[in-house]
Write a structure and sequence with these properties.
The complex is a heterodimer of chains A (350) and B (302). Helices cover 36% and strands 22% of the residues of chain A. With 350 residues, chain A is of the alpha/beta class. Chain A has two domains: 266 residues, Rossmann fold; 74 residues, no CATH class. In chain A, a hairpin with a 2-residue loop joins strand 4 and strand 5. With 302 residues, chain B is mainly alpha-helical. Chain B has one domain: MetI-like (MetI-like fold), CATH 1.10.3720.10. Helix content of chain B is 71%, strand content 0%. In chain B, helix 5 runs antiparallel to helix 6, helix 5 runs antiparallel to helix 10 and helix 10 runs antiparallel to helix 12. Chain B is elongated. The two termini of chain B are 22 Å apart. Classes of the chains: A alpha/beta (350), B mainly alpha (302).
Chain lengths: 350, 302
């Protein structure tokens, strides 16, 4: 079952100029103990200059999805199937050399931990220049000049000096900016950001987020932003995909998903945010904890925690129900739950 | 001295500000600068430099022929006229023999460690970075060598090969490979899991260039420091082999061998007989202290 058959004559099919088209992505981790499905049936598309936010709690498969797109998962211990086409090229079938040409030049990635994502024994300038030289073959001096430009681009104060600084000499926020500079070094068309603001202080988070949004617009990059912060998603996303237990349970435009969520999990998540309610009211939470991916329940993975679960949910896995112009919801009762009357009910039920 | 301390204080207040603008500051320039503030390490580096210089310039520096015997002037005390450090049991000049002995002792101390550093470091980096089956095979082979005490292993190898300098060098090299390999493997396998290796892959770096730049760059400091501490061990082991008659053969001057043959005179001229041992002590101590200083200077995060 592909997304296209579900969405029918949606405009997605018309835009064949998609930057990224992911169909039925599936990632299995294999070990001596057996095989674990970490990501299943993940399908989405991304147009140039668009921002997709992948939301979900820890262990829901967000980061794995992102790494799978670049084939960064350890070979031999993981198996990626499905289709990932980037500008019409099949990334999963690409030979190693072509993949190395793609990585860092046309697709690049920002990592979560600025502490460990920069090599401690090389200066910031060297690390940016390394990628520039690899992909453009320019001289060292030219690459360093480019590195300086990039540090100015990400608004690092006194960039000449920071060029010669080692990662440990910078603060967390500056380090993350340097990391962003490294990933932008060849002006990629697709930027994959794996929780780039999670490890930072709240004030620095906003700064980095605003910077990223601005750079994304200025450079027209397609961006996939993994986060578990709803506020971040609301600020920057065009599209939102909510992941739970390795599957996308709800996918649609940011407005649709945030203002009118259909999946009970997405609803629960939104209901558990603080947004100007009375101080004495408890924040509603989703009961229970996420399932063990090695022992998923036979039916819907969310059924044990869902307030609307029926026998059907516990017996069989739900398929994709289309929603909005291009999105989908992974729920047996998506149609019944779509009525606004139930949105309020969720809050009281959970 | 006071100028140095003020420099220090400024450097501590504004990290990175003590370097003039426009000057590219490499890692090694940094290390050199930090060593400049460490007088103890500098002093012992000077001691090593003096020993190496004396060894290299032995034919010109040594006052006498180290092999010229004299039946009349045997076991003279330290301070004898013409023989500053006395003479040995065959009447040979001790100072000259110590200087010539530095050649073999330093060679036996440094060369095996260097060769073992290259071989062990290479194996360790491959094993640590590749992990899995490669790691298993390499490290278990190293464990076989580890099962023997190092002195016993060195004695066994050089004994089997029939003694002499060449077999001594080979024996010492084989003794040091496993431990250097293990240090390199530990460092490399720690790096393998870090994000910057993934980040390098994500920026399109092929595996060999990741190993050459990021892995070697991070593995080199700990391995170099460990290797520098092994030089003193190597000098001691080499002396031990010579003492047992497995290293350098008799007429050649070598500290361990001298210590062995001077045993007979220990009641007559204890100070003279202790001189080769003293030389071994000073040189190996210097290497240890310098290695300690290097460890501090090379730790980039301090």
């Amino acid at each position: 079952m592909t997304l296209d058959t579900v969405t029918g004559s949606a405009p997605v099919q018309a835009t064949r100029t998609d930057l990224l088209d992911v169909q039925n992505l599936r990632v299995d981790f294999t070990s001596r103990a057996g095989r674990t499905q970490v990501v299943r049936d993940v399908s989405f598309t991304l147009a140039p200059g668009e921002v997709l936010c992948i939301l979900g709690e820890s262990g829901s498969g967000k980061s794995v999805t992102l790494r799978a797109l670049m084939r960064l998962l350890p070979q031999g211990r993981s198996e990626i199937t499905g289709q990932v086409s980037f500008q019409g090229e099949d990334v999963l079938a690409m030979p190693r050399r072509a993949l190395n040409g793609l990585r860092g030049a046309r697709i690049s990635m920002i990592f979560q931990e600025p502490m460990t994502a920069l090599d401690p024994v090389f200066t910031i300038g060297d690390q940016i220049a390394e990628t520039v030289i690899r992909h453009t073959g320019v001289s060292r001096d030219k690459a360093m000049a480019r590195a300086l430009e990039l540090l100015e681009l990400v608004r690092i104060p006194s960039p000449e000096r920071r060029l010669r600084a080692y990662p440990h000499e910078l603060s967390g926020g500056l380090r993350q900016r340097a990391m962003i500079a490294v990933s932008l070094s060849c002006y990629p068309q697709l930027l994959l950001a794996d929780e780039p603001t999670t490890a930072l202080d709240a004030t620095v988070q906003i700064q980095v987020l605003i910077l990223l949004k601005q750079l994304q617009q200025d450079l027209g990059m397609g961006t996939i932003f993994v986060t578990h912060d709803l506020g971040v998603a609301a600020q920057i996303a065009d599209k939102i995909a909510v992941m739970y237990a390795g599957r996308i349970v709800e996918y649609g435009s940011a407005e649709e998903v945030l203002l009118n969520p259909s999946h009970p999990y997405a609803r629960g998540m939104l209901a558990s945010t603080v947004s100007g309610q009375a101080r004495d009211r408890d924040i509603s939470a989703i009961p229970g904890s996420p399932p063990d991916l090695r022992a998923l329940p036979p039916g819907c993975a969310f059924a044990p925690r869902c307030a609307f679960a029926t026998d059907l949910c516990r017996r069989t896995e739900p398929g994709l129900t289309p929603r909005g112009t291009f999105g989908h919801v992974l729920c047996h009762h998506a149609q019944d739950l779509a009525s606004p009357a139930l949105v309020g009910a969720t809050v009281t039920a959970t | 001295m006071s100028e140095m301390t003020t420099n220090h204080a400024i450097a501590a207040q504004i990290p990175g500000e003590d370097v003039p603008r426009g000057e590219r500051r490499s890692y090694w320039a940094n290390v050199r600068e930090r060593l400049g503030h460490d007088p103890v390490t500098l002093f012992f580096m000077g001691v090593i430099g003096a020993a190496v210089g004396a060894a290299l310039l032995a034919p010109w520096v040594a006052p006498h022929d180290p092999y010229a015997t004299s039946m009349l002037a045997r076991l003279r005390p330290v301070g004898t006229e013409g023989h500053l450090l006395g003479t040995d049991e065959l009447g040979r000049d001790m100072l000259s023999r110590l200087i010539w002995g530095a050649r073999t002792s330093l060679l036996m101390g440094i060369l095996p460690v260097l060769v073992a550093l290259v071989i062990g470091g290479f194996l360790g980096v491959i094993a640590g970075f590749m992990g899995g089956a490669v790691n298993m095979v390499v490290m278990r082979i190293m464990d076989v060598f580890y099962a023997f005490p190092s002195v016993l292993l060195a004695v066994a190898i050089s004994g089997t090969l029939g003694g002499g300098m060449g077999s001594g060098l080979l024996a010492l090299t084989l003794v040091f490979i496993p431990s250097l390999c293990r240090v390199a493997e530990t460092a490399a396998s720690q790096i393998r899991g870090l994000d910057f290796v993934d980040a390098a892959r994500a920026s399109g770096a092929p595996v060999y260039s990741i190993i050459v730049t990021h892995v070697v760059g991070n593995v080199l400091p700990p391995v170099l420091i460990y290797a520098s501490s092994l030089i003193s061990v190597s000098i001691l082991l080499a002396a031990g082999l010579s003492f047992l008659g497995l290293g350098v053969s008799p007429p050649t001057a070598d500290w361990g061998q001298m210590l062995s043959s001077l045993r007979q005179g220990i009641y007559m001229q204890p100070l003279v007989c202790a001189l080769p041992g003293l030389a071994i002590l000073i040189v190996s101590l210097s290497f240890n202290l310098v290695s300690d200083g290097l460890r501090q200077a090379m730790d980039i995060k301090s």
